[in-house]
Here is the input.
Amino acid sequence: MRGAVIHAPGDVRFETLDDPKVLHPTDAIIRTAVTCVCGSDLWPYRGAEPIGDPHPMGHEYVGFVEEVGSEVSAVRPGQFVVGSFATSDNTCVNCRNGFPSNCLHREFMSTCQAEYVRIPNAGGTLVALDETPDESLWPSLLALSDVMGTGWWAAEAAEVRSGSTAVVVGDGAVGLSGVIAAKEMGAERIIAM
Ligand SMILES: [Zn+2]
Here is the structure.
C-alpha cells in the first residue's frame, strides 16, 4: 500500500509500505475513504517537535472495514466506519464510566495517512453507519474522528448548559467544533476569539 512518511521537517513522502495485518483478535483493518492532516501533524512538519526516525503519519480517518479479528463483533467487513484517534475497548472501567479517551487499553492512532490502517480495540473504537454515506459527506464525517470529539468534550468539560455564555479561545477546527457543541448544548451567547 501507499502511505505518508515524515522524514524531516518539510519532508513528507508518499511511500510504499507493508500492508497492515490483524495482529490481535480485537483488531480491524480498514481501507481509508478519506484521511487528513491535523494541526498537530504540523508541529513536526515545521520542526517544532522532534521527529526521530522516519515514521508514518495521521490519526484522522473514515473508511471501509476490510477485515476483523475473531473477537470483533460490533463492525463487519464492508461497513463504512468513523473511528477515533484514541482507541478504546468500550468495556474497561474508564470506558464504562464515560471516559473512553482514557481507556486502560488505549492506543493512539498514528498511521492513518495511508490506504489501509490497522485499528486496535476496533469494537469500541469504530462506529459503523447504517449505509455508505454520499461521498460529499465524507469530509464532514472525518471531522468526527478528532476535532468534533475534542471540541465537544471541551464544551462538556466547561459545563455549557442552556442559557450559558460560552467563550471559545482559538477558532481553528477544534474551536469551531466547540462552538457547534456549545450551541447544541444550549448556550445563549458564544464568543469565539
Ligand atoms: Zn476501555
Notes: Residues 146-193 form one domain. Residues 173-184 form the longest helix (12 residues).
